[in-house]
Amino acid sequence: MSSSSSSAAASSSSTLPRLPIFEAIASHDPASPAVVHSLSRRTFTYGNLLAHVSRARDRLQQAHGGADLNGQRVAFLVENGYDYVVTLLAAVAARAIAVPLSPAFPASELQYILNQSEASLLVSSAKFASKATQVLATDLTSSPIHLELPKHMGDDGPPGPVHLDDANPGGAGMMLYTSGTTNRPKGVLLPQSVLTAQSQSLIQAWDYTPADRLLHVLPLHHIHGTVNGLLTPLLAGSTVEFMFPFNADAVWGRLAAPFLPAAAAAAAADGPPADKITFFTVVPTVYSRLLSSHKSLSPEMQEAARKAVSPENMRLAISGSAALPTPIKRAWKDLSHGNVLLERYGMTEVGMALSCGLSFADRVDASVGWPLPSVQARLVDVDSGEVIQEGEELGPDGRERSGEIQLRGPTIFKEYWRNPEATAKEFVEGEDGNGRWFKTGDVAVRRPVPEAGQNSAQPWAHGPMYFIQGRKSADIIKTGGEKVSALEVERELLSLPQIAEAAVVAVPSGKWGQKVGAVLVLDPEHVKGKWTPMDMRRALRDRLANYKIPQVMKIVDDIPRNAMGKINKKQLVKAVFADEFSEDEV
Ligand code: AMP
Questions:
Q1: Which stretches make up the AMP-binding enzyme C-terminal domain (predicted)?
Q2: What is the pLDDT of residues 248-261, one digit of tens each?
Q3: Which of 284, 291, 474, 503 has the largest count of CB atoms under 10 Å?
Q4: For residue 319, which atom of ligand 1 is closest to its CA?
């Protein structure tokens, strides 16, 4: 079934539910830009946003035959920009569950999500209408109604006043699908109360303000792009400038624009000068690509770019979603006249959980910092199952105890959609009667760092710091009775000049249980001839205990990563080390 855009409700009620996100938007300066399209410089203000959301909400409801959308799933395929923002908020305004889809997904993946979520609507922009039609033509077990949105919702009639009424959130929320490295993707249900708690926690920790302008280069079907990069800045009244898909040269061009000597003259002829970008939150691979592309810019552009990312202009540059290699952090600091990347840790199910602090001293190499405001975190010893209390971080043998990170509080997701078994499996009841803990599956150690955690303006950033060792299922390698953190070995490998990229994996072994395997991309600038396993061992000898040094190594041209720069290690080990599985090293 299809509902055409021209049948939009003429008599919009222009009331929206009194939810915190709408209250916040209504309270921001109406003239202040909420969204900017970077290339065209089109600007959409806070003052018009709610009217557009209200109209789009009416369209959704009408497409649904006027029936209540409360708690229904509204899947949508819309490009990064103002129309995406309006569609997401319109679903929330209808008290529905917004399900953002990636236009890059193949039809089979989209079909799975539509079926699993039992979507009532599939909303598409004009650009993705044919993709939507293609998915709807597949063998769906659900029967979503297709709504094609009009182009340019920012031109959707003169904006009128919008009133906020009933504060009942109903079933409003958002659902994101996990990357599904082992099983099929799971729908992670994030009610609006959870989204609000996540955003409020980040506003407190990272000081988002209306003066901030974020350059948004991430996909919009992940927690990083949606919560950190969009909902939180909207709640804070910041400006989100979209520039997607990521292109390193284009990003440098944009960042540098306000600092080029020609900027003033060009702006006089061409419109207002581009405002400087103050806030950037991306994944480590983006920093890595920016660092290599910077070298090929013209000298004038290089200098303007360095100025753009220096601490006095870019007030916060954040890295997360995967471990930040120390060489990237150092190289960024050098390039940016001293800007230290802030690393944080999070996941789809919990939003952001741990973060380093705003003062540079609180951005400790290899650490993801402390539990964010309102997040409760604990470490549960992977061997004994005991909670590792503060002060008990060292075991009787003097070694650091590693534990699974468990989390609770208002920022944690509600459930895996229509999957009570998976939900039950990932939570454990708290002994104190104060609620259940989510088992992240990530392992960490906690370590006091005396010079960090002294900033009295950030009281949450205090105490021993967390250092991620990796996912229990893929990164904790059990070899000959010892446990090895793949992330720790990767860090050391990446600090060698010969290595451009590294993934450390568990290779099944009859003799050792598992062997430590390294998949490497070499840096041609530093390796002229061959680089052998012997060279690797020699280079690591003084950096790592013997049992941590990879026993097997493969050189590849490229390590496949997803849109967020993550490596699927289960696939990688099969693809690269299949022939090693039953052999043993001597
Ligand atoms: P996703 O739910 O796709 O965002 O993936 C979350 C996973 O990414 C976590 O469970 C961690 O394994 C990993 N991750 C996120 N941030 C970091 C970080 N700063 N360092 C290491 N791993 C991270």
A1: 488-566
A2: 999 999 999 999 98
A3: 503
A4: 19
